[in-house]
Design goal:
By secondary structure, this protein is an alpha+beta fold. The chain has a single domain (27-201), classed as Inorganic Pyrophosphatase (Alpha-Beta Complex), CATH 3.90.80.10. The protein contains 3 helices and 10 strands. Strands 1-4-6-9-7 form a 5-stranded mixed barrel. It has a two-stranded antiparallel sheet with strand order 2-3.
């Protein structure tokens, strides 16, 4: 008896082995690295695909949403073109922040996220956009379709987190939030990151 077609004999790499989604760019799959409960910055290891400890959070603020990336995306030339004040893409998969009403307290989960907007961030000259989305099957957020449907207070928390999450006491920061953008621009960034991925990895 053979294995079913959907069975993975080996664990797929979350960046390269998971599907990006079926209703693109409106709904994407998100691989979650961090939750609002994490006082440590976790990041997927690009070689093995396992989650590794990057560093303890350097400030008292913690991510206000689920935080991870969209599989099979890559931030390079096309993403950079959509970020006027950056010099290059950051060479990572496209980050995503996923809002949900029910707390999810563990990482390394995959979920379907409905895109509503994003944050244009430049980190040391690199385009480091953060897509903003809601958990697609969360009834609490069923009417959220664009960035205007998200509380300004929550958006300000996201802005503050990303402006401060790399702060080192006594050292200047080179992280800048240029703007918070709407769903249509987020779609363009996702499409650009998909094309950058295809060019880089085939």
């Amino acid at each position: 008896m053979g294995f079913p077609k959907t069975f993975y004999r080996w664990r797929p790499h979350p960046w390269h082995g998971l599907e990006i989604g079926e209703d693109l760019p409106r709904i994407v799959n998100a691989y979650i690295e961090m939750t609002p409960f994490d006082a440590v910055k976790y990041e997927v290891d690009k070689t093995t695909g396992y989650l590794r400890v990057d560093r303890p959070q350097l400030t008292s603020s913690m991510t206000p949403t689920l935080y991870g990336f969209i599989p099979q995306t890559y931030c390079a030339a096309r993403v950079n073109e959509l970020s006027p004040k950056s010099d290059r893409g950051d060479g990572d998969p496209l980050d995503i922040c996923v809002i949900t009403e029910r707390p999810i307290n563990r990482g390394e989960v995959i979920l379907k996220a409905r895109v509503v907007g994003g944050i244009q961030m430049v980190d040391n000259g690199e385009a480091d956009d953060k897509i903003i989305a809601v958990l697609d099957n969360d009834p609490f957020w069923k009417d959220a379709q664009d960035i205007k449907d998200i509380s300004p207070a929550l958006l300000e928390r996201l802005r503050h987190y990303f402006e401060t999450y790399k702060l080192v006491p006594g050292q200047p920061s080179d992280v800048h939030i240029e703007k918070i953008y709407d769903r249509e621009h987020a779609y363009a960034v996702i499409n650009a990151a998909m094309e950058d991925y295809t060019e880089e990895y085939g």
